[in-house]
Amino acid sequence: MDKELSRFLTFWNLLDDTEKELLNQNAIVKNYLKGVTMHQGSGDCLGVVLVRKGQLRTYMLSPDGRDITLYRLFPGDVCILSASCVLESITFDVFIDVEEDSEIITISSALFQQLAKQNIYVETFGYKMATNRFSDVMWAMQQILFMSIDKRLAIFLSEEIKNNKSLELKITHEQIAKYMATAREVVTRMLKYFSQEGIVKLSRGKITIIDETKLKKLTLK
Amino acid sequence: MDKELSRFLTFWNLLDDTEKELLNQNAIVKNYLKGVTMHQGSGDCLGVVLVRKGQLRTYMLSPDGRDITLYRLFPGDVCILSASCVLESITFDVFIDVEEDSEIITISSALFQQLAKQNIYVETFGYKMATNRFSDVMWAMQQILFMSIDKRLAIFLSEEIKNNKSLELKITHEQIAKYMATAREVVTRMLKYFSQEGIVKLSRGKITIIDETKLKKLTLK
What are the residue boundaries of the HTH crp-type domain, all occurrences included (chains A, B) (predicted)? Predict the structure, then answer.
C-alpha cells in the first residue's frame, strides 16, 4: 500500500520507517454501499478518509433535519473533518454520506493522533487539509448566500458534466436540491425554465444538456 | 515587544534568536480609527493581525455589496485570513472593518511567509489559526442558515452583554443587522417584540436588557 499512501499523504517522505510501517499495517480498506451515512457528527470520529473509488458528500445538518452540502469528495481526495476529534481547532461536526459505491482507505483517529503528536509534519498536514476544506465551504456559502438560483444550477450542471464526462446526467431533482441546499420545488421550477430556454431536455430521472454554450453563459452571468 | 509577541504567537519558543529578532524588529504597531476598512479582499495581503486593543469585524462581501459577518476579533485575538496570500490552501478573501478605535500589531505577509518557510512550527500555527476561524465560520453559518431570528438575536444580545460587561448596549439596529447578516427591518421588528415581552427597553441608539433570565431562556430554545 506504500505507494498509494504516499500519493494521498504529502508528509509520507517526512516519516521515519517505523511510522511508515505503522500506517502500512493499520490503514483499513473498506467498501461502502451507496446511501450509507459513513460518518455522523459528534458521536463519531471515524478517522482520516482517503477516497480510492466512488463519491462521498459532506454536509451539515440542522436540528430539524435539513442538510446543507459543504463539498463532495472524489477519488484521490482526503477528508480530515471525519477526524475532527484529533484536531483541537475543529469544534464543529459534519456528516458524510456515500453517494456512489465507494472504496475507502481509513486511518483511524487514534493512529493519526499518535502520528500528529510525534511528527509535526503530520499535524501540519491535518490543519492544511482542514484549511483546504475551509476554502471549499466558503465557496459553497458564497453560492448559497449570494448567488441567484439559475446561476447556481448552471454551475452545478456544468460540474456534473465534467465529473461524469457526459451530457446525460442521471440525477433526480431531489438530489440536486440536496447538493444545492435548496428546495426540490425550486430546482424543478428552474429546470423547467432551462428546458423552455432550450438548454436542457428533461426525462424521467435524467437531464440531458442540449445547449452547453447557453449553459456556460449562465454560469458567467 | 518580546513578551507581548510570545503571548500571541504560540510558536515563539520554537523560534531561534535570529527569527525572534526579526519579528521584534519588524512587527508594526498601528492605530486604526473606527469605521476604516482595514483589509479588503483579494487586492490586499495585509499580513497577520494581532489585536492589542479595540474590535475588528471580518466579513465576506457579495458582488452586489451585501456583507455577512463571519466573526469578530477582540484584544488577544489573531487574524490569519488577512495573510491569505501566504497560505496556499486559502483560496477565498475576506474583508476586515475596524469597529472600535483599535491598536493593532501587524506582521507583514512577506515576513510571515519567510518564517513559515524556514520554520515548520510557524507554518503549522498559520494553518491552525485558519482552522480555528473555520470553526467560527461554521458556527456563524449554522446560525444564519438554521436558527430562528429570535434565538439568534437573543444569542447576539447575550454576547454583547458579556463583551461590554453591561446590560446597557449602545448599538443601532443597523449595526445588529450587519453582525447578524440580516435586514434592519427584521431586527427592528424582533426588538419590538422583545420589548413587548419585557425583555428589553428600547431608546435612541441604546438597548437596555431588563430581563436577562428571559433572554437566556430564548438562547436555549
Answer: 147-213
Give the per-residue pLDDT at A65. Answer: 77
Q: Establish if A135 touches chain B: CB-CB under 8 angstroms.
A: yes
Any idea where the domains of chain A sit in the sequence?
Answer: 2-145, 148-220
How does residue A93 score in pLDDT terms, banded at 50, 70 and 90?
A: confident
Arithmetic mean of pLDDT, B58-79: 88
Tens of pLDDT, residues B130-177? 999 999 999 888 888 888 888 889 999 999 999 889 999 999 998 898
- CB B138 to CB A89 under 8 A? no
- Per-residue CA distances from B152 to A154, B88, B140 (Å): 33, 34, 10
CA distances to A23, A78, A110, A116, A128 from A11, in Å: 12, 13, 18, 11, 11
**CB contact residues (below 8 A), chain B span 151-210, against chain A:** 181
A124 closest CB neighbour out of B123, B142, B144: B123
Residues 63-122 of A with CB under 8 A from B: 63-64, 66, 68, 87, 89-92, 120-121
Stated length of chain B: 221
Range A2-145 classified under CATH 2.60.120.10: yes
Indicate yes or no: CB of B92 within 8 angstroms of CB of A144: no
B134, A133 contact by CB (below 8 A): yes
Residue B24 has pLDDT above 90, yes or no: yes
CATH number of B147-220: 1.10.10.10
Q: Which residues of A115-125 are buried (b: 16+ CB within 10 A; e: fewer)?
A: bbeebbbbbbb
State the best of A61, A117, A141, A220 to mutate against chain B, taking most chain B CBs within 10 Å: A141
